[in-house]
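Protein entry
_____________
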Amino acid sequence: MTVRGLLYVDARFTNPELSVEAFDKWYDEEHIPHLLTMSGCHAAMRFVDIDAKAEIPFLTLYLLKDVFWVHSAEFGTSIVSTESDLLPGRSVFKSVAFDVRSYTLVESIVGEGAEYGDTAYVILTAMRADTESPAGPGEKVDLRSSAIQRRFKQAYRYHMHEGQPEEWKQRWQSMGNPGGWPERDLVIQRFDGSQTEKQLASMAREIDDAEWTRSWLSVSSRVYKLTKSFGSNLGN
C-alpha cells in the first residue's frame, strides 16, 4: 500500500560566499531535475518567505507518490546532485543548512477560491503538540472551520511520517533546536495572486488566533511566494 506524502525542505545560508543566483541555478537546473527523474517524486515547488527578514527564507516542497520512498536506495542517490561547480566548495552542505522532514497526506479540501487563477502563494501553518506525547494525525485540525476557507483555492493537512531517518533528526538537533522532532502537523493553504502580500500576512495572523489552533502547544503561520514549480501542482 502506498501512502502519498510530502518532502519538506527549508533552507538558510551559512556561507556568505554563496549567492542567491548560484543557489537558485543549482536547485532549478541540477538538483530538482535529478530528483524528478526518480520513481518516487513527481513534482516540486520552490518558495521564498515574503518576510525579507525571515531567518529561514527558502522552502521546497516535493510531492511523493509514497512517503516510504525516502527510505529507498534510489532516494539515497539524491546525494549525487548536492555537489556542483556552481557552489562554493562544491558541496551544498558547506554553504546551506537544511531542515528535512517527510509528511503523510491526511486530508485535502477545496476552498471557495478554487475557480480562480494558478497558485501564487501558500500559507503554511506548522503546529507543535507536546513533544513527549505527539498528537495523532491531525485529529485536532478542522480545515472546514477555518475562517478563511472562503478565500483559499485548496488546503492540505499533513502529519509527520513517523519513520523519519535518524540522520534528519540528528541534523535538526545539531542546528540548535530542541530535542525530539519539530512541528508534526502542517496545514498548507493555496492562494492565487488576487490577494496582496499584506492581506495574506493578515490571514496568517487570523489562523494563528483561530479557535481551532488554541489547543496546540504552538502554532506558527508563514506566507511563502511561489518562485518556481516543476511538474504538477501542489495537489497530490
